[in-house]
Design brief:
The chain is about 50% helix and about 10% strand. The chain has about 475 residues and is α/β, with parallel strands linked by helices. The protein folds into four domains: about 60 residues, DNA polymerase, domain 1 (Orthogonal Bundle), CATH 1.10.150; about 110 residues, Rossmann fold (3-Layer(aba) Sandwich), CATH 3.40.50; about 160 residues, HUPs (Rossmann fold), CATH 3.40.50; about 100 residues, GMP Synthetase, Chain A, domain 3 (2-Layer Sandwich). Helix 7 crosses helix 8. InterPro entries: HAD-like_sf, HAD_sf, LarE, NAD/GMP_synthase, Ni-pincer_cofactor_biosynth, PGP-like_dom2, Rossmann-like_a/b/a_fold.
Length: about 475
């Protein structure tokens, strides 16, 4: 099954079967050739009429003599987890008797979505196609046959009975020493696939206006668009409003200009929208609606085919994202999400391309700092911005390295979120006292440091657990 070391269990069960039948079955030789159906392995040693019953008896003996002793191959759990982490599913397609294969999976807690047993060679192709597999990992030349018949990528590991040369001669696409090498290979393979998909999506658009915040996601969209379409068919647009921290504006413009594209900075007026000022759980809907209602006509004015946002695949799976709905309703395209690129992959691809935002912390708008239900006003946003600037100044003056910071506006009180290890380190110390004093000087009556540290979207916790924050 590629996931487990079947040799000890197979050998033990074969020994019991040989004793019952009163024949000699060369266990060492037979285990070197594991892979084909059991009946094929038994054929040289038994009369034809005994092969079927012997196979049935082997399968009866197997649970008691093999399942408890068979270990997972090194890297098996990690390989399955790697698929899951990248948003994929898993199907085990094996020549093993299905109930016994399921016993192995259950005992070893191997997390798979589907099991197709008792299929062999090209017969595996139907199961692979049925479950939409794109990669088949095996250790035998007949696994390669199944993969090729299904039209999927064949990845072979050298933990079975076949040599590298045999597997390559059979037509496998990739040979790995073991499953331990699979997560790294898979990460690279998927990233390359998604990079190609991103570039193809942009190529299809022909020209694009990128809703450019200066963060890692929109920066990658902009860089990719320039690579694929050229500078003359790409424009960056950053909406300027009270919600955009002033400290974000110059770096965003500088990066866009470094890429050689035109930069537009239209004013957006989120605060003119009642739903935005009300600051209920759907505030982001009104924010994104205002941005797209500004950018869509701007794109048309400049002869650009589409407006692209930096929405990534993680954003789409995150659940409560009203801003994504507003952008979708207005026809915005999402090249990163369309290509399946996650936040981690956005950062890795950006690093490889030399896009400086690859390691930039997430920087949500100032309104995201304000507790739901409190009205969004220019004064409130300015107070948050002053408080964050003051906290950064205190920590930098103390020689503290800070990555993430949010000052959450809870009304007259503020909650300061910094990197979790730093929050624990600051607890009760002199630097913490200076931080809290700086926040009060910025206009808050009370201030505290959240001991749980920075959490992206922590204000949403107040929507799902309102009783905790009363």
């Amino acid at each position: 099954m590629t996931l487990i070391d079947t040799v000890p269990g197979f050998r033990a069960t074969l020994g019991v079967l040989a004793t019952e039948l009163g024949v000699e079955l060369p266990a060492e030789e037979m285990t070197r050739r594991l892979g084909p159906p059991l009946e094929q392995l038994l054929a040289p040693y038994l009369p034809a009429e005994q092969i079927g019953p012997a196979g049935d008896r082997f399968r009866e003996l197997y649970p008691d003599h093999a399942v408890a002793t068979v270990p997972p191959l090194p890297g098996a759990h990690e390989a399955l987890a790697a698929v899951r982490e990248l948003g994929g599913g898993t199907v085990v397609v094996t020549g093993k008797y299905t109930p016994n294969a399921q016993r192995h999976l259950d005992r070893l807690a191997l997390d798979v979505d589907h099991l197709e047993g008792w299929v062999w060679g090209v017969g595996k192709a139907e199961a692979l196609r049925t479950h939409g597999a794109s990669v088949y990992v095996g250790d035998h030349v007949h696994d390669v046959e199944g993969a090729r018949a299904a039209g999927v990528l064949s990845v072979s590991v050298l933990t079975g009975g076949c040599t590298r040369e045999e597997l390559l001669d059979a037509g496998t696409d990739v040979v790995l020493e073991s499953l331990e090498a699979f997560p790294g290979w898979l990460a690279e393979h998927v990233l390359e696939q998604r990079r190609v998909a991103l570039e193809q999506r942009l190529r299809e658009l022909g020209s694009v206006l990128v809703a450019f915040s200066g963060g890692a996601d929109s920066a990658l969209v902009l860089a990719a668009a320039v690579r694929v379409l050229g500078r003359d068919r790409v424009v960056a647009a950053t909406g300027y409003s009270h919600a955009l921290p002033a400290a974000e504006r110059d770096p965003a413009r500088a990066l866009a200009e470094q890429l050689g594209v035109r930069v537009l900075t239209p004013a957006t007026h989120e605060l003119d929208r009642v739903g935005y000022r009300a600051n209920a759980g759907d505030r982001c809907y009104f924010c994104k609606a205002e941005l797209l209602d500004t950018l869509v006509p701007l794109a048309a004015e400049h002869g650009l085919a589409a407006v692209a946002t930096g929405t990534n695949a993680d954003d789409v799976r995150a659940g409560f994202r009203p801003g994504i709905r507003a952008a979708d309703e207005r026809g915005a395209v999402t090249p990163l999400a369309d290509a399946g690129l996650t936040k981690a992959q956005v950062r890795e691809l950006s690093r490889r391309w030399g896009v400086p935002t690859w390691s930039k912390p997430a920087a949500a708008c100032l309104s995201s700092r304000v507790a739901y239900g409190l009205e969004i006003t220019p004064t409130r946003l300015a107070r948050v911005e002053r408080a964050e600037a003051a906290v950064r100044a205190v920590l930098e003056g103390a020689g503290v390295i800070l990555r993430d910071l949010r000052v959450r506006d809870l009304g007259e009180a503020a909650s300061v979120e910094v990197d979790a290890p730093l929050a624990r380190r600051l607890a009760g110390g002199e630097t913490a006292a200076r931080v809290l004093a700086a926040v009060r000087e910025a206009g808050f009556h009370e201030a505290s440091i959240d001991p749980r540290g920075f959490r992206s979207g922590s204000m949403n916790e107040r929507l799902s657990q309102p009783e905790r924050y009363r």
